[in-house]
Amino acid sequence: MNSSHERNLQAALEDLRRELRKTRFCVICSTLCLGGAGITALFAFASTRKGGVAGLGLSLALGVLGCLLLPRPRANPLQRLFELEDTRCVGVLLDALPVASGTMYEEAIRLLTHLLPKLDSSALLTHKQRKILCDALAHGNIIEDSAFLSAILDSLPVIGATRALPTVRILAERVALHPVEKAVRAKAQECLPVLEERARELREYASLLRPSDGREPPDVLLRPAPATFDSPNELLRAESSEPENKVVKL
Q1: 97 lies in a domain?
Q2: pLDDT (average), residues 215-231
Q3: Does pLDDT of 129 surpass 50?
Q4: How confident is the model at residue 159 (pLDDT cuts 50, 70, 90)?
Q5: Of the listed ranges 75-79, 81-85, 97-101, 163-167, the one predicted with least confidence
Q6: What is the gyration radius of the CA atoms in the chain, in angstroms?
Q7: Would residue 125 count as lying in a domain?
Q8: pLDDT confidence of residue 12
Q9: Per-residue b/e over 62-86, b at no fewer than 16 CB within 10 Å?
Q10: I want to staple 164 with a disulfide (CB 3.0 to 4.6 A). Which of 33, 111, 134, 148 is the partner?
Q11: Longest dimension (CA), the chain
Q12: Does 81 share its domain with 183?
């Protein structure tokens, strides 16, 4: 049973990754075609009549091609992941948010709303995926996306994404009139102390790693010892055990 679940999960994740690669490729190609159509149209208007007609035709063709290349992702991989209910797919779903659209985006949001409260380890998400999650919280509509925002707030204590602290503080302190707003505010108020404690621990840890300043600059430690002789000749003078011969002048 476990091996079957693992195979199904890996197959669904691979389908989703393939769909994301296809979507990114279509977005790039569509952008290039539409941009080329605009540039060609500008040159067409600046050209002669014959060249202008040809340029407008090429611009129109590029525009149509760009529209045809717009991604139309399928929702089937997400439906399979929804049936599996495995939190290991949260990271891939977050990667899909910036490029997903239409049905795929709606399914990704619905699945994340279902899985984020079940997240039990921050190791499942990369730094980039945490950033996507925090951005979704910051830019979400508190009325329309209330369920998704509440799910994000439920997962933040586990993830420990302190970069979301300003947004959580705003949500916790905002004036809420609608029942949905009050529910999101309550979630933010529960999440806020945990993130503040996490931020305090990170600051203390950073202060322990910070090198301490010495009382004396390095040049003091490297200062040469003062010489004990008044003249360099004294270092070269040899001591003699014999008394010096004195010349007596007659």
Answers
A1: yes
A2: 47
A3: yes
A4: confident
A5: 75-79
A6: 36
A7: yes
A8: 72
A9: bbebbeebebebebebbebbbeeeb
A10: 134
A11: 129
A12: yes
Domain count, the chain: 2
**117 and 91 share one domain:** yes
Q: Find the domain containing 39 and state its range.
A: 1-46+54-74
Does one domain contain both 9 and 108?
no
Does 250 map to a domain?
no
Asked whether residue 100 falls in the same domain as residue 33, the answer is no
How far CA 247 is from CA of 233, 243, 244, 250, in Å, comes to 24, 12, 10, 9
Are 163 and 137 within one domain?
Answer: yes
Q: Which residue has the higher pLDDT, 234 or 78?
A: 78
| Average confidence (pLDDT) over 133-137 | 92
Asked if 112 and 149 sit in the same domain, the reply is yes
What is the percent of the chain where pLDDT is above 90? 21
